[in-house]
């Protein structure tokens, strides 16, 4: 195991809704990635009252890895992804925050790359990108690919945010920067990821990018439906009109 570097600590926010089958594996991969790279960390699980018993699984993991590594911050019901991050952030003790999906679409092996990229130029934000270099998407059908590409393309044209993946949600933020961004963000649904990058640019924060592969989930199903697509479009138009 490598030695700890300085006093930096990384708080990983893992929002979960029906991720019972995925949680043990993602946590194991996270712990391994941090132990191998020698960075201090905590994993904050924000479960929204999953009916499949995700929270009970998380409690088992808390026992295995310890309360300082697995921090449970559940909410009583499904209140959405955007507010889940905000809720988790309030309990984070690290000076850096990593947000990612809990369904194994985002592989923890990329985290050391996020950290080195951040340190390279002291970036305020490091964003995982599926649309540059060796990045990519695996397992999505054509419809889902078109929605993602379309959302990115429209946003690029309308808002010119200067980052290649706007709807992705595998990112590292300086904690103070994330707090600032959350304060200035109006949207709370899936469009939240896009607004965060747009606001970051607007407020003059620096953004680094790391190519990542996004692999569609094996267990469980996506919570992104037609409603999310419509609210994304609304959010995008709102930002276009106001920024
Ligand atoms: N706590 C909580 N509450 N967690 C939630 C909720 C909620 O209401 N909705 C979803 N999640 C969790 C899931 O359990 C998973 O860990 C993560 O948030 C992403 O949800 P998915 O349902 O798997 O999203 P996706 O795969 O369709 O969408 C991914 O790609 C989109 C487009 O690139 C995500 O990365 C999105 O954030 C991204 O915008
Ligand atoms: Mn997913």
From TrEMBL:
Cofactor(s) essential for the protein: Mn(2+); Ca(2+); Mg(2+)
Documented EC number(s): 2.4.1.83
Domain of life: Eukaryota
GO biological process: dolichol-linked oligosaccharide biosynthetic process; GPI anchor biosynthetic process; protein O-linked glycosylation via mannose
Enzyme class: transferase
Main location per the UniProt record: endoplasmic reticulum
Localisation: Endoplasmic reticulum
Keywords, alphabetical: Endoplasmic reticulum, Glycosyltransferase, Magnesium, Manganese, Metal-binding, Transferase
Residues covered by the Glycosyltransferase 2-like domain: 11-181
SUPFAM superfamilies: Nucleotide-diphospho-sugar transferases
Gene Ontology CC terms, in alphabetical order: endoplasmic reticulum membrane
Keyword Calcium attached: no
Family: Belongs to the glycosyltransferase 2 family.
Role: Transfers mannose from GDP-mannose to dolichol monophosphate to form dolichol phosphate mannose (Dol-P-Man) which is the mannosyl donor in pathways leading to N-glycosylation, glycosyl phosphatidylinositol membrane anchoring, and O-mannosylation of proteins; catalytic subunit of the dolichol-phosphate mannose (DPM) synthase complex.
Summary of subunit composition and partner proteins: Component of the dolichol-phosphate mannose (DPM) synthase complex.
Protein name, per record: Dolichol-phosphate mannosyltransferase subunit 1
Naturally occurring in which organism (per UniProt): Branchiostoma floridae
């Amino acid at each position: 195991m490598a030695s700890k570097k300085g006093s930096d600590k990384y708080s990983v926010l893992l929002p979960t809704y029906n991720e019972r089958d995925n949680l043990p594996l993602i946590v194991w991969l996270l712990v391994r990635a941090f132990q191998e790279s020698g960075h201090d960390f905590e994993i904050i699980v924000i479960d929204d009252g999953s009916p499949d018993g995700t929270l009970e699984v998380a409690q088992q993991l808390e026992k295995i890895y310890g309360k300082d590594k697995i921090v449970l911050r559940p909410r009583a019901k499904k209140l959405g992804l955007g507010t889940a991050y905000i809720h988790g952030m309030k309990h984070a003790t690290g000076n850096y925050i990593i947000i990612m999906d809990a369904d194994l679409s985002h592989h923890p092996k990329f985290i050391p790359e996020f950290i080195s990229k951040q340190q390279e130029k002291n970036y305020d934000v490091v964003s995982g990108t599926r649309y540059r270099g060796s990045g990519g998407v695996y397992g999505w059908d054509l419809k889902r690919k078109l929605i993602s590409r379309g959302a990115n393309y429209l946003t690029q044209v309308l808002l010119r945010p200067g980052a290649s993946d706007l709807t992705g949600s595998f990112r590292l933020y300086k904690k103070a920067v994330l707090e600032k961004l959350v304060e200035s963000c109006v949207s709370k649904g899936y469009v939240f990821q896009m607004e965060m990058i747009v606001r970051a640019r607007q407020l003059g924060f620096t953004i680094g990018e790391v190519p990542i592969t996004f692999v569609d989930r094996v267990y469980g199903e996506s919570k992104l439906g037609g409603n999310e697509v419509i609210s994304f479009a609304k959010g995008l138009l709102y930002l276009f009109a106001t920024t």
